[in-house]
Amino acid sequence: MSAGLLILIKFTLLSGIVLMYVALGGCFSEHSGVINIALEGVMVIGGLFGILTVCCIPKNLPSFLIVTISILVAMISGMIYSSLLAFASINLKADQTIGGTALNILATAIALVVVKHYNSTITTNNAQSPKLNYDNSLFIFNVGPFTLNVFIILGIVLLVLSYFVLYKTRFGLHLRACGEHPQAADSVGINVYKMRWAGVLISGALAGIGGMAYIVPSVQEWNFEVGVGGMGFLALAVMIFGKWNPGYIFLGSLFFAVFKSLANIYDSTFLASFHLTKEIYNMMPFIASLVVLMFTSKNSKAPKAEGIPYDKGMR
Amino acid sequence: MKKGIAIISSIVCILVGLLFGLILLCIIDPADSISLGFSPLILSGLSTAFDPNWIAAGTNLMKLGQEIANAMPIIMTGLSVAFAFKMGLFNIGAAGQYTLGAFGALYCALVLKCPWYVCLLAATLLGAIWGMLPGLLKAYLNINEVISCIMLNWIGLYGVNTIMCSNDKMFNSSQAKAYQVGVVNKSALIPDSIFGWNISETFNYAATNTGIIFAVVIAIIILIVLNKTTFGYELKACGYNKDAAKYAGINDKRNIILAMVISGALAGFGAGLFYLSGTVQWNPLDSTALPAAGFDGITVALLGLVNPIGCIFSGLFISHISVGGTMMQQSIFPSEISQLITGLIVYLCAFSPIMQEKLTKLFEAHKKIKHDVNKEEK
């Protein structure tokens, strides 16, 4: 196996898993009937608090505990943050897109304020730096020539679990019913509000882990000024590309990740002879998903009632 | 009455947002939270305008000038979002249209060496084209405009940065930024004075120019188009109820496309105003973040009650507190607190329909009690 191919696989796994987490999150939320534009913001919040936990946790704890606790914190902070969206869009019936956009704007600001304040408390000289340093060695391990991280293992488990939950359990059926036809679901005794809350909270948990999985394994220092660089929006594209189905979402995230990795490694491989820039590789997945949207829009698999607040009085 | 309630709900959003900001400042540093944090944040440019030391130096209006200069592009993107909103479309793509507009303006200014009005026209045109694409996709293929706009935002950003980096007339590799318009082609700068009044000299801030007058004039034009023309009426009819409008013989496909074209043109024009003002430089190496003005436009439109005149005031307000954020004591309070307040305000704006409903009920109940009291007295 050539070195170039190895690096390609490594980068593809790194970003593919992230996209999968977040797209799965979006999938749960949209199946329950809530469009979660805030995924990008939830990723930032999950990543922020996950990394802060890694920074603050006593270093003498067993490494297994450190990893578990920090991932749990990322998950829970993602859930808490997305509950803001759930409250606005389910209980107060506010516009889901506006609420989500607000949370995206808010997340970067929160992250910068928290990081700058944290940095100014631990040191006096580099006060107000937007960068966070952390140790990621606990999250990474080597298997033969491959460098893997815990998020890949967890991601595969969660992928299988989400497929099972969505399509093989009573809960999944109820959830999907709320996104397709909430009035009908309500008429057979399903609590639509509860189901939608569940959908949004699960999406928050997955996107929270996704945010941490994006930042932690690849670098040891993160500048929160860039947020998560549009990964949340890309994940939305993956979700549409994957037709709201966990299996296709997995394939879709790998497809998108290949292009994203090509942008990182193109100059060291044979691709350099095409004289395309990094930006063109970055652009391709977006163009691909637009094209896919154009061809599938007529028989879209999107949940029918997504984006419409459910009002009990309007049956 | 209805308008009054809407304005009250906007003000409530602002006050609650500011209150949260104050609480946050108190958490960070209770002792200095008012004097070094909250008062510079909310007074912003006004605090220096009346300061004798600054007046003596002749730079007392500089911060106000900066506020006005920063308000120009976000008033325009706010108008862009508000215009699409009237049609029931959520133009989250203002950031992408803004990017294309910036490219159009800079290309004409740096490569073709055109005068400023041609550059502005190019910015408007490119923004309009980028806005037209989601319009076409929505009208003919029924693709959700939010999703297609998000994709087009990133396609636009990557595309523009690729072209700029490869063009050595635009990209100054020694500075790793685009060339300054004022240095390469002075005729491309938007004029400073109108009717003999030199705006940038008054404010002592180079980027404050006649652009703000353009923005205000365009807001008034949009107001007239929306309220006094058949096109505006059709647009609003489609926004209220698409099916009813269609039944009444309104061509909804044509209106969707036109609304997006105009919306894109407004965002592109805003970018033109900002990048031809002479102080800002585009950074083509930064492909990780879309221009913030696009998303600020959403804030401006919502806070301005989706009204063109409201957009002017809310644009000035958002610019006011973001300049205020930079005037806080930076070693204690991060300037992003102003951004946080803005985000909170947008979040609260999402509730404003419910808030307006509750306020209306409250007022009606109040009126009824008064009415009943009057009756009993008789």
TrEMBL record, chain A:
Q: How does it sit in the membrane?
A: Multi-pass membrane protein
Keyword tags: Cell membrane, Membrane, Sugar transport, Transmembrane, Transmembrane helix, Transport
Q: Name one GO cellular component term.
A: plasma membrane
Q: Which InterPro entries match?
A: ABC_transp_permease
The record ties this protein, via CDD domains, to: TM_PBP1_transp_TpRbsC_like
Q: What is its main location?
A: membrane
Where does it localize?
A: Cell membrane
Asked if the keyword Transport belongs to this entry, the reply reads yes
A molecular-function term among this protein's GO annotations? transmembrane transporter activity
- Quote the Pfam families the UniProt record gives: BPD_transp_2
Q: Where are the transmembrane segments?
A: 6-27, 34-52, 64-88, 100-118, 138-166, 197-216, 222-241, 248-268, 280-296
Q: What name has this protein been given in UniProt? A: Simple sugar transport system permease protein
> What species is this protein from?
Lachnobacterium bovis DSM 14045
Which lineage? Bacteria, Bacillati, Bacillota, Clostridia, Lachnospirales
From TrEMBL, chain B:
> Which compartments does it reside in?
Cell membrane
Report how it sits in the membrane.
Multi-pass membrane protein
Looking at the UniProt entry, the stretches that span the membrane are 7-28, 34-56, 68-85, 116-133, 205-226, 256-277, 297-317, 337-355
Task: Report the InterPro entries cross-referenced here.
Answer: ABC_transp_permease
Gene Ontology MF term list: transmembrane transporter activity
> Chief localization class?
membrane
Show the GO cellular component annotation of the record.
Answer: plasma membrane
Domain of life of the source: Bacteria
Give the UniProt keywords, A-Z. Answer: Cell membrane, Membrane, Sugar transport, Transmembrane, Transmembrane helix, Transport
PANTHER family for the chain = ABC TRANSPORTER, PERMEASE PROTEIN (PTHR47089), GUANOSINE ABC TRANSPORTER PERMEASE PROTEIN NUPP (PTHR47089:SF1)
Q: What is this protein called?
A: Simple sugar transport system permease protein
